Amino acid sequence: MLAVFGHQNPDTDAITAALVYARLLGRQGIDAQAYRLGEPNFETAFVLREAGVDAPPLLETLPAGAQVVLVDHNESAQSLPNLHELTVTRVVDHHKLGDLTTTQPAYLRFEPVGSTGTLLLKLFREAGLSVEPLDARLLLSAILSDTLHFRSPTTTAEDRDAVAFLAPVAGITDVEAYALAMFAAKSDLGDTPAETLLRMDYKVFPFGEPTAPHQWGLGVIETTNPGYVFGRQSELLAAMDNLKAEDGLSGVLLSVVDILNETNRTLVLSATEEKVLREAFGVETQGHVADLGARISRKKQVVPVLETYFTPQG
Amino acid sequence: MLAVFGHQNPDTDAITAALVYARLLGRQGIDAQAYRLGEPNFETAFVLREAGVDAPPLLETLPAGAQVVLVDHNESAQSLPNLHELTVTRVVDHHKLGDLTTTQPAYLRFEPVGSTGTLLLKLFREAGLSVEPLDARLLLSAILSDTLHFRSPTTTAEDRDAVAFLAPVAGITDVEAYALAMFAAKSDLGDTPAETLLRMDYKVFPFGEPTAPHQWGLGVIETTNPGYVFGRQSELLAAMDNLKAEDGLSGVLLSVVDILNETNRTLVLSATEEKVLREAFGVETQGHVADLGARISRKKQVVPVLETYFTPQG
Ligand SMILES: [Mn+2]
Ligand SMILES: [Mn+2]
């Protein structure tokens, strides 16, 4: 039995990719079970509710040597804590390749597309398998979520083609309305504790020297209602401060992405982060907020800049 | 312009994969040039001569930031010396994933098949492109070479299916006769210097702790005429001794694989290697030769055993 799971602090792509890939493997005669490494966010909960499926069960640990399939991530810092003891047999991902290694030849499929969902659709086609309406709905939701309905610079022609193909199969006639409903669900943050907001779409990246990296925690809140988030600025800064101390991080940032206006205003904890933002991005911070303009993709517009900044030129 | 190349000490798979993948990328509108990182062996020279194509040009260095495509390998120890400064945009490979990382999302395609040639045939099919006779001949040769015409335990059903498909396209009616001619060419070692024989299919593997690995050099001579190789045993042991000292290795082994009888008798340099072979494989060494029985695949039957031996159990 293969355990299939996406990254910690799962987003819609991580959860749906695990569900759909486990189903695809099952149709190919490979026994696989989908899991999640954390709670679904409000957008994902909406997607699953609309699709009429339960979230996959929570996975907290696996015994050494267990066979696993990673989707939508590959770095150990974003995976099960004891990933290095597990046997990775398959990976389907659209992120840069980090510290993953395998002990045996494995199936690895990485492409620079906007969503793991887009890549999974290719796997259905290559296997000569039809896409069932439920799978189509989950894959479509993943693509809309990761690309912010094509607003993100990570969007590719393949993502657009995939959505055009999937929408009629899923029975979704108004894709824009469905995407807006997803984003509204994501933005309905209500009385969510500040720490939960911070960790909702949060990843730790090791920058610079692999043996002695600068560990930076980068959170993102994608919302149609940024005013709500900035109304809770002092709580969020306190949560960032706690997280930095607890996890021994070099820096913490929380980017508040306005989905509809395609802008990124980022919460900046201290003078340390302020200096890095000034030197790496050339932006100034005022009252703990830095205007990162149209840099709405952490993966494509924030992480590579910090990676370059911290990497000594050889 | 993408530079496409296989591993150092190239074998037939490494050379032909670079040639064929560069041609495939070209047909997809991507500007790519095949290279080799070393001299073709006698088998590869035979394959290229029969196909009527030149070996790709030798590549010794590339400027930092150059875009490269790796085929048939992924570990930096087997690649261009400054791989960590280059931008890897694509990898097609059938080995375990080593220390490769990418700075951006890339195209990575790994499958546990017997040869990169098998995987490249899949890429033609997925792209909806016909396979031209030259490409078919090169891919077929790679599969026969890497699988020792299906004798190696790395052979999969996909390798057999690929050869069955490719042979008529390549115009090769007697596959067994062609394979034997390839292996005879490989075995015609003549007055090749001992150091060249040792390095012909030679790879360095870092075993154990990534930060302080045991570096082992593992050479293989696949031949239909093992008697010739053992006739030069003392020269080969001297070459192994030199290599160990020059490269600061922890161990050196040279496996002499009898292709037709499917056996592996391995030259063992010193008491250090002898101890490891005893403890890891349970075999004794006599007169610098250890009988590794039917373990004819370095990748599948030798490297994993040493990897396990040197990895502290967690
Ligand atoms: Mn994703
Ligand atoms: Mn190969």
Automatic annotation (TrEMBL), chains A, B:
Q: What is this protein called?
A: inorganic diphosphatase
Gene Ontology MF term list: inorganic diphosphate phosphatase activity; metal ion binding
Output the InterPro entries linked to this UniProt entry. Answer: DDH_dom, DHH_sf, DHHA2, DHHA2_dom_sf
What SMART domains would the database entry show? DHHA2 (SM01131)
- Segments forming domain DHHA2: 179-310
Please provide an example of a Pfam family that matches this protein in its UniProt record: DHHA2
Q: Which cofactor does it need?
A: Mn(2+)
Gene Ontology cellular-component annotations:
cytoplasm
Keywords for the protein's UniProt record, in alphabetical order: Hydrolase, Manganese, Metal-binding
EC numbers for this chain: 3.6.1.1
Recorded superkingdom: Bacteria
